[in-house]
Amino acid sequence: MSISFKTPRLAVRGLILQDNHLLMVNAYGGGVSDLLCLPGGGVEPGTSLPDNLIREVHEETGLTVSVGVPALVNEFHDPDTGFHQVEVVFRCRLETGQLDPSWRDPEDIVTDRHWVSRDQISALHFRPISLPELAWGKSQSAPTYDALETIVR
After folding, report:
1. Assuming Cys at both sites, which of 6, 10, 27, 146 could form a disulfide with 74, CB separation 3.0 to 4.6 Å?
2. Global pTM?
3. Terminus-to-terminus CA distance in the chain, angstroms?
4. C-alpha span between 146 and 141 (Å, rounded)
5. Tens digit of pLDDT per residue, the chain (153 long)?
6. Containing H/E element for 11?
């Protein structure tokens, strides 16, 4: 089988802490995995990264955020398909809204939304693996980089 490598997909994600709990969403639709990630998604050309993130967070959660500084550049790939994604994770602040179980993601991918404590996260299947340090660690000022890793399901 010949693999054709494509231009990496650019995505944005929001690191949103509220009352020392981190907002996480399911990474895959249809119950194919229990993997959790930060809310966000693909970037639409001609729109700034922060504006894309505000849109994605609202679509997936119903919440409105303000976007702060970048916290992480993360990337992963699937060597079997050639898929490669580069994500810019921004620190965000919740401006308005509450999680509502009846909220529907228009793309029908995100169906689970959770506020997760530092104590709870270690028992969960999540990416990027550096998330606990990123959210609750002492070094919260300078952006970091997570090297390319193979996609996880």
Report:
1. 146
2. 0.91
3. 22
4. 16
5. 555 657 899 999 999 999 999 999 999 988 889 999 999 999 999 999 999 999 999 999 999 999 999 999 999 999 899 899 999 999 999 999 999 999 999 999 999 999 999 999 999 999 999 999 999 997 666 788 888 888 887
6. strand 9-18
